[in-house]
Design goal:
Blueprint (H helix, E strand, L loop, with lengths): L12 E8 L3 H11 L7 E7 L6 H12 L5 E5 H5 L9 E5 L6 H12 L5 E7 L3 E3 L3 H9 L5 E10 L2 E7 L1 E5 L4 E5 L5 H4 L14 E5 H7 L11 H11 L3 E12 L16 H18 L4 H17 L3 H14 L1
Helix pairs in contact: 1-2, 9-11, 10-11
């Protein structure tokens, strides 16, 4: 049952961006959870990254059977680029010309939104998530009180273990060039009131930003096909004087890794995830910490040796070639 409120100046309008690649079933489940949000002044843009498995048509079929005709619109990327006014439909489905990665998929929607006046906030949400009904209300309540925060994170909980935290943010080790989820595998009940002092980045599964933030800091860097795009955005945000934070009462349930072939508990990366994780790390360090080039070379070479030790010969060869080409 659809229950949409009209625009209200007391409740700023939010655009929710989902990027779909192959995972139309997850995307549909995510959209269904959006329909239960208690905060109703939102619109969703779903960008299908040219999935080869008929995802876009599956999403259209869902919209045509689950929504009223005025609640959904369908465009190609080229058609969207020609639009200068907004669509009134609750869900706007965009078919990208090609798959250029997570950042590029989000940027298709962000470029469109920068032309429009009515949106104050933008929620970048992974398609393999479901959201608590009060999650967007919690986001906007916090964001309206602290204008110096550039990116807001959420409390990410494992979809299959909803009482266990996946992350409330991330930390970045500048010596080892490693990232770590803060709060990972802790019981939600035991740490719900715990205040984490600092985070180095907001985990990309759920990021709330203001339109002004995007205008100031810029779009996501499309050189990251997968991984490190949120750390790059956070690093650029810090350079522009913004802080990072998360909303403890904003709960998002994340399946993690569905569309890239990794398992749902994150213990085993797919070949695709492993490759892009290393490639994006190399690019990030060279962009933001060029003085550490030698250290980066040593650490990546160590990762090759570790994969050889685990008999991951194909992965080791691919990473070594990447190291040779990039560093």
């Amino acid at each position: 049952m659809e229950n949409y409120s009209s625009n209200n100046i007391a409740t700023p309008k939010v655009c929710i961006i989902l990027v779909n690649y192959l995972g139309w079933q997850d995307t549909i489940e995510c959209m269904q959870s959006l329909l239960n949000l208690t905060y109703t002044n939102w619109q969703a843009i779903i960008v299908d990254n040219n999935s080869p498995n008929n995802s876009y048509n599956q999403l259209k079929d869902w919209a045509n059977t689950s929504l009223s005709s005025e609640s959904s619109s369908f465009l190609t990327e080229d058609e969207l680029q020609l639009k200068e006014e907004s669509y009134e439909s609750k869900f706007l489905f965009i078919k990208a010309n090609k798959n250029q990665g997570f950042a590029a998929g989000n940027n298709i929607a962000l470029k469109y939104l920068l032309q429009l006046r009515e949106f104050e906030y933008i929620w970048l949400l992974n398609n393999d998530t479901t959201v608590a009904p009060d999650s967007l209300s919690a986001y906007i309540s916090s964001a309206s009180k602290k204008s110096n925060v550039g990116i807001w994170g959420a409390k990410l909980l494992y979809y299959h273990k909803p009482d266990i935290i996946q992350a409330i943010g991330g930390s970045f080790n500048k010596k080892l060039f490693t990232t770590k989820h803060i709060g990972e595998n802790l019981s939600d009940a035991k740490v719900s009131e715990f205040q984490f002092e600092e985070i180095d980045y907001v985990v990309g599964a759920s990021m709330l930003v203001s339109k002004k933030f995007v205008e100031h800091v810029g779009l996501m860097d499309e050189n990251y096909f997968l991984y490190f795009e949120e750390l790059d955005w956070a690093t650029r945000a810090s350079k522009h004087g913004y802080k990072l934070s998360y909303v403890d009462s904003c709960r998002i349930y994340h399946k993690e890794g569905q569309s890239i072939g990794s398992n749902s508990n994150g213990n085993e990366k797919s070949d695709l995830a492993d490759y892009h994780g290393i490639k994006s790390k190399i690019y990030f360090i060279r962009k933001h910490y060029p003085e550490y080039k030698l250290r980066l070379y040593i650490l990546v070479l160590t990762s090759v040796i570790l994969r050889l030790a685990r008999l991951k010969f194909k992965r080791a060869a691919v990473i070594f070639k990447l190291l040779y080409q990039t560093v």
